Amino acid sequence: MPEDESQNETPPDGTKKPTLPPGYGDDGDESSSEEDTPSGTKKPAGPPASSGDDAGTKKPTLPPGFGDGAGGDGSADGEPALSRKDFQSDQDVRWCPGCGDYAILSAVQRLLPELDAEKAEHVFVSGIGCAGRFPYYMDTYGMHSIHGRAPAIATGLKASRPELQVWIVTGDGDALSIGGNHLIHALRRNVDLQLLLFNNEIYGLTKGQYSPTSERGKVTKSSPYGSIDAPLNPVRVALGADASFVARTMDRDPQHMKAVMEQSYDHDGAAFVEIYQNCNIFNDGAFFEFTEKETKPERALFLDDGAPMTFAEGKKGLRLDGLSLEVIDLENGRFSTSDCLVHDASDEMLAELLGRIFWDEPASNGSAGDQKLPRPFGVIYQEQRPTYEELLHTQIDGITEKKGAGDLDALFRSGETWTVE
Amino acid sequence: MNQTDAEVPSANGQTDTEALPEATVLFAGDSGDGMQLTGSQFTLATAHAQSDLSTLPDYPAEIRAPAGTTYGISGFQVHFGSGNVRTPGDSVDLLVAMNPAAVKVHLGRVERGGTVVVNTNAFNDRGFKLADLDANPLDDGTLDDYRVVEVELSKLTREALSDTDLSTKEVDRSKNMFALGLALWLFSRPMAPALEWIGKKFEDKPALRDANRHVLKKGYHYGETTEQFVTRYDVAPADLEEGTYRAVRGAEALALGLVAASEKSGLGLFYGSYPITPASDILHELSRHKNFGVMTFQAEDEIAAAGSALGASFGGQLGVCATSGPGLALKTETIGLATMTELPMVILDVQRGGPSTGLPTKTEQGDLFQAIYGRNGDAPLPVVAPDGPADCFRAAYDACRLACTYMTPVILLADVYLANGSEPWRIPDAADLPPFEVNFATEPNANGDPESTHVNGKKNGEASFLPYRRDEETLARPWAKPGTEGLEHRVGGLEKEAETGDVSYDPANHQHMTDVRAEKIQCVARDLDPPAVYSAGTGADEGDLLITAWGSTRGAVETAVDRLQGRGTLWPLPPGLEAIFDRFEHHLVPEQNNGQLARLLRDEFLLDFRPYGKVQGQPFTPGEIVEKAEAMIS
Predict the structure, then answer these.
(1) Residues of B in Cβ contact (< 8 Å) with A119
(2) Is B246-432 CATH 3.40.50.620?
(3) What is the rounded distance in angstroms from the CA atom of residue B312 to the CA atom of residue B64?
(4) Is residue A230 domain-resident?
């Protein structure tokens, strides 16, 4: 064993912390070594990308939105504006080059300076998986917890410290497999937090097994003959758990991602944000149908509250046919945008219909032919209802007002007492 | 009741009053007969008469078992005396049996020659059939060795209330008050506490209030007028320390200890819990005290209960959860995370019979290994064990203090017997409780690391916060609350680099951190006093045999030592034990598991500790320990 393994990993720019542990990034659970890359998938095109102090290093493989551009533009009047850099920790980012996680991290780091909370009020809680490393890269408070339990930990934190801004970072395995129980209960309780679910439809950190969102038939290391499991539809899980905010966005559209995150932050209650995230090592291109410019216009429907549902650069729309959705052609003269459904995020029945557009998307029976329905992105559903911590503290305050603030000596002496002299 | 101190003539001249040093009474009947209530009221009266006492409720796991069956029997045992009472009693002097099934289930616990009061109105063919008896135990010789007092409890109660408008059901339900009155008379206990309690309980129902009071008095006077009792008994007041007392159940005392810890430390109490027998009573108790700012959270599962408590601790609150053995197993991973993140957290384990679902309503001490060792990796933590129901208050308070002082999870091992049992508690003044001060980090604690180009992103000389820079004395790391400007930091389950808290896979660092985590827990022992050897007042601190025990077994062991001749934190072991052990030739370790402490002590001291395990769902009796000890030294 080399005396100082860390030297082997020091990047060319020399900014790596000397104290950074050797082996970080290639232990048994990590997925960055090339020999583990399945044949046929894209190889990383460059050295591991890194944020923080090595600004200026070129990262040709970085996804859109993860550059080293200027920070956020949210300077409050008269106050020294925080920038994106203020939210970058000194830790080297160790995701595989080309990973969709970079874009998500960048979007969050660009968004936070624009928000009305103090930097010290943000807390990121994560579970296990590639996404779980997220808090280490944020210069905020954070906890990288255990597999699937981030919603439980975040619930205790937010319930007891309502003034904090609590974010959960999780993945499809973390949130929907091992942590499924905590996910649905955090949502139904409506704890005021933002849950960012990085869905890449694969177990990445354990090097490529099918996940609860992988499509049936998927060939992975643990399913060489194809997975026989039916996938979960995260949006419908959230709707089924009565989430008060349900949205979907994608790593390859930083502007949309940032806007949805901002809406989730502004929402009072549990905000569920599914982010389609490309794992270029184990599941490359899983969402290209929706994210790449060749197919995105036809396959992605961007929802805008109060606006008609149109896609394909305005050439197509969605309308209601009985209880089904159908695609209509807005160019053939028969239909106009006034025939399209208008998105209303507060309509739970509409949310049901939109949520059902999933793997087995029903073919449209409309005039646009038997085309599959486009996948909706944006805020699918939102309602206002009291948050868990609001109810908890309102109850405590009410009882305290009624009974008076607790007196320990009186409590000790409640019930029958007697005195020995 | 075997020993008689003196014979005192009774006031009315008809019945003699015999003074006893101690006595044990057991009320037994259907779940619906109100036996727990009768037992608690007898306990209260006994407490008012200033006896020392200990109780053992024993009820079925089924909620509403069919009436009259043996498996539906609910019992409440009270042991009281003028001396030091530390157990609910070896054997019963008076059994009050509301039906034949109660006789069948509990007669084995009654001392030969003891008194059995039976409600003869329930001794009919139907009752025998329900109890699966072939014959009437009153006739078939079953009770030949006992003093049997036949009382028509149901009939007498109905007669007493014949001129009220109450329904037959309401009338019949008050027959336990008749039994209570009779027992109070028999042991010369005051009626006033029960009368007062009835007044409060039925404040809004004057008819029921008057009826219950009337029946209670009827039962009491029945004792005086009937000639069935030759002797009446009295137990002199115990020599209790001056002060105000109340009876307290262990579960209640645990809850009070947590509230006290929260109030004294100024930390908000966040209690995450998933319902589990027998720990749920703590949740019930705490959820009543929201005016102390207590946040109770009924989680979706055991894991979330622990996780939410840890989340609250990260937020700078007092994160606590409680469970029993199976739930502790589920919390294991979270406790490991608390060990790695070095956050305070208190886990109460009310032990029950195991493994698996085991005996949910019966007592055992089988989780000792699970508490001390039961985590992946080397994950040491302090374990606190109360030794009696009232001591549960001290133990809960101490567990919270240890957790915050040393920034560590702490497990408290109670058990069914401690949680459900009650005893007199000398109420402390809140002001006299040990100080409990928490100092949160508010300022950076480092000025950059000269060896490094930066620490936590700070340049040389620039103030920074090192979340794993330790207190020299306690080895605790600083506790910085989210929201504190400039102290932003990350914690997590991956190994942490010393000082910076950054993720580290460095082999030497892992060795160092493993060692420091162990050393930190050993620091706890520095604050502990060496244990005193109990020798029943003889002052002996060396000899043939030393009995070593932990937790709730203490009472039975001390009583056993009393007969043979005359606390604190369990893990880390207190200092000075080796010197004590060396002074004794033989070592006996009675515990309610299959020898877990004995193995632990053998491992630590390389001496021949003889395990004496009892796993029958019932606590040790002093007699059992006497027998074993005598066999070892004879």
Answers:
(1) 485, 488
(2) no
(3) 38
(4) yes
